[in-house]
Amino acid sequence: MKHILSRTAVATVLALSAGASHAAVKVGFMLPYSGTYAQLGEAIENGFKLYVQEQGGKLAGQEVQYFEVDDESNPSKGPENANRLIKRDQVDVLIGTVHSGVAMALAKAANDSDTTLIIPNAGAGAITGPLCSKTVVRSSFSNWQPGYAMGVVAADKGYKTAVTISWNYAAGKESTDGFKESFEKAGGKVVKHLTLPFPNVEFQPLLTEIASIKPDAVYTFFAGGGAVKFVQDYAAAGLKESIPLLGAGFLTDGTLKAQGESAQGLLTTLHYADSLNTERDNAFREAYTKNFPNLPPDVYAVQGYDAAQLLAAGLKAVNGDVTKKEELRDAMRSATIDSPRGTFKLSKAGDPIQDIYLREVKGEENVAVGVAVEALEDPARGCKL
Ligand code: PHB
Predict the structure, then answer these.
(1) Topology annotation, domain 12-141+276-346
(2) Which residue among 42, 142, 143, 378 is best mutated to probe the pocket of ligand 1, counting the most ligand atoms within 8 A of its Cβ?
């Protein structure tokens, strides 16, 4: 378990002893280092640092200094944690976070203080919708994207009814709404939406309800530690063989070692897969595995890596001068990112426009079996940029 104070204190001491704050880009990670999303935060930071390391430890000729705050995936502590990085550490760029509710607070703090924010995971629709801003971009996805893609797949498979199930917060709501949108447009019907509070894992009563409803399929959003338990419980309840379990790919990403047999054959949709077998992805996976031998090169690691690539594109355009905020942000928005997932550009609202793969779990891999929807762009409803 990592502690906020000690991590931040160590980072600050390192920064001071480097003694060159004016000559370095100060990057503040606000990520979960504890709780159900702890492994996700770690993977994002690893991916980011791997890219910087591959550039010789510098971006656009600038040293990079890191600051870290554990946000615990706790939205109520969001504003305070964001201000630790913005006001106390005075970072130039924020990288965060995983949880959509915490990301809402972080995006607000970034906007209020005019601090550039790159979101390496959280898919909250509002951030690139009604609250969209030039200050903020994502290297990840919108919650709508994988859900919408799976609705298309489920309808194609001929399923007519579905139950959706997730944690009761923005990510679960938006992911299952995305599924419902495309599934119902194609003639299907979501007959019930089941929820439980984040990060609870008492799934049993809800699984009993699914068994009694007997839908053609179940669509779910869970991630991290909760996803491991949900997949295990779904199989243990005897549902896996009778009612196909579909998910946003977070359900089985970075989790397969722990899920084992219970995850075999599951279909999910995501903007990354383990079997792309491109030169770019193979190089990334090899480097990641060499640096972090005990961790899978998962979607979170890719999103962290690409957050660093976005920042590099921005810094390059301003020759490393972080005070040129507008130019830096415009350059990130017009960059083409050579991602392990495949190249992508950002939409006007700041979301990756990207292929969403259909994946099947085989052993410890999410194997791509096709592209569910090509070049999918979040509709960014309400964004006025
Ligand atoms: C989110 O809260 O937006 C979220 C969290 C974990 C994921 C994906 C999305 O894996």
Answers:
(1) Rossmann fold (3.40.50)
(2) 143
Q: Which DSSP category does 139 fall into? A: S
pTM of the model: 0.94
Residue 99 alpha carbon to ligand 1 centre in Å:
5
Cis amide prior to 115 (ω within 30 degrees): no
Contact between 161 and 191 under an 8 Å Cβ cutoff? The reply is: yes
CATH topology match: 12-141+276-346 vs 144-270+357-376? yes
Residue nearest to atom 3 of ligand 1 (CA): 122
Predicted local confidence at residue 109, as pLDDT: 98
List, chain by chain if needed, residues with CB within 6 Å of any ligand 1 atom. 37, 98-100, 121-124, 143, 171, 223, 250
**Which atom of ligand 1 sits closest to the CA of residue 223?**
10
At 114-131, the pLDDT tens digits run 999 999 999 999 999 999
Question: Residue 98 carries which DSSP code?
Answer: S
For ligand 1, the distance from its centroid to the CA atom of residue 52, given in whole angstroms, is 24
Phi, psi angle pair for 159, to nearest 5°: -65, 140
User: What are the residue boundaries of the structural domains of the chain, listed by start?
Assistant: 12-141+276-346, 144-270+357-376
pLDDT in tens, 79-88: 999 999 999 9
Residue range 144-270+357-376, CATH number: 3.40.50.2300
